[in-house]
TrEMBL record:
Similarity section: Belongs to the peptidase S1 family. CLIP subfamily.
InterPro entries: Peptidase_S1_PA, Peptidase_S1_PA_chymotrypsin, Peptidase_S1A, Trypsin_dom, TRYPSIN_HIS, TRYPSIN_SER
Transmembrane parts of this sequence: 16-36, 330-352
Alphabetical GO biological process terms: proteolysis
Cited PANTHER family: ACROSIN-RELATED (PTHR24252), HYALIN (PTHR24252:SF7)
Protein name listed in UniProt: Peptidase S1 domain-containing protein
Ranges for domain Peptidase S1: 123-367
Length: 371
């Protein structure tokens, strides 16, 4: 069945942006629910553009506070703009010389695009990704050596030294902390090409207010011991620093299980498109606050309420993303896979940690020396 497109709206009110998405959920009726995100733009006392955030969200800020025009409990948190600048900077690696010499001192005018997503239509679920299609994808390895490691979580390369993932992947309940990060491949077990980079982990950093019991604020960072060599096989994704999601669907990627009853995840990187699910419908599925925590704007729901398309065990920490119009051939990382009720069942969406809410903390950890 061909899924009909639902309408997308972006309503702008004074000092506030409200993204309203209408999500199709039944195969024979075009019924839609709304998913509303309130984002308040503002000016700091120094006249710097920013977003209204809570004290926790505006991590590391110690300047004067302006609450004018912001909802109760929030103030104007300056937007450093560094995530956008880095997105532009990293996108240059999409264009290499014909020999793909992206990390040499030799440059000339003979550049060609190495984009592997240009013109690719919206993906339909559960198919293998192509090499270089998601160059920001990282696999987290647990074990003593890379050869014996179990690759049990995903992540997103976001800079030369950092990978974004879920906090619960940084201290696995059976195998402890990850030791390795693998980049530049689609088959996590049998790909031994020269393009693969395997990095030792220097340290893991969970969000300071991560609640392990209910997986609130389920987001974390991995610092690598050595610098990643950017090329068309390993290239960072762009962080969602604007917050407004105009798309009705996102793309999820990972090496997780393809069925609940399987013991191991997929060896090949898989991709699937998921509908963004309205918060009211999400609350119906996750209706036990004591078990699942609060469904606030730091989280988002996605899936296919008819069943059959979902993320599953082993996909944790990986991204949900959209394709950016600009910069060319870059993805915007809007969420981090956190947890779900089950895999691919009817009316069983999954929970994703929303990246926008954690931008100040991510920028403080990853690029504080540059801001």
């Amino acid at each position: 069945i061909q899924l009909p497109e639902c309408s997308n709206y972006l309503a702008i009110q004074p000092k506030m942006i409200v993204g309203v998405l209408f999500i199709f959920i039944f195969p024979s009726l075009q019924l839609c629910w709304t998913y509303t995100i309130e984002i308040y733009k503002c000016l700091t006392p120094y006249g710097i553009n920013g977003f209204c955030r809570t004290k926790r969200e505006c991590f590391g800020y110690k300047g004067p506070i302006n609450t004018h025009g912001c909802p109760s409990g929030t103030f104007c948190c300056p937007d450093s703009g560094i995530s956008k600048r880095k997105c532009e900077e990293y996108s240059a690696a999409v264009f290499g010389t014909l020999e793909d010499q992206l990390n040499t001192e030799v440059y000339d005018d003979d550049f060609e695009s190495n984009c592997n997503i240009e013109g690719v239509p919206l993906i339909v679920g559960g198919v293998e990704a192509a090499l270089k299609e998601f160059p920001h994808m990282a696999a987290l390895g647990f074990g003593l050596t890379p050869n014996t490691a179990k690759w049990m979580c995903g992540g997103t390369l976001i800079s030369e030294h950092f990978v974004l993932t879920a906090a619960h992947c940084l201290d696995h309940y059976t195998v402890g902390r990850p030791k390795f990060v693998k980049l530049g491949m689609v088959n996590v077990l049998r790909d031994y090409s020269k393009n693969i980079q395997i990095h030792n982990i220097d340290k893991v950093i969970s969000y300071p207010y991560y609640n392990k019991a209910v997986k609130m604020n389920d987001i974390g960072l991995i610092k690598l011991k050595r610098k990643v060599q950017f090329n068309t096989y390993a290239l960072p994704g762009c962080l969602d620093s604007e917050g407004v999601i105009k798309e009705a669907r996102v793309i999820a990627t990972g090496w997780g299980k393809t069925r609940n009853d399987l013991r191991e995840g997929s060896a090949s990187l898989l991709k699937v498109t998921l509908n963004i699910i309205g918060i009211n419908d999400c609350k119906k599925a996750f209706n036990r606050k004591s078990r699942y925590g609060k469904l606030d704007q730091s989280r988002m729901c996605a899936g296919d309420l008819r069943g059959g398309k979902d993320t599953c065990q082993g996909d944790s920490g990986g991204p949900i993303q959209t394709i950016l119009e600009h910069p060319f051939c870059m993805y915007r990382i809007v969420g981090v896979t956190s947890f779900g009720l089950t895999c691919g069942f009817v009316f069983a969406p999954a929970i994703y940690t929303r990246v926008f809410n954690y931008i100040p903390w991510i920028e403080h950890v990853v690029w504080s020396h540059e801001s």
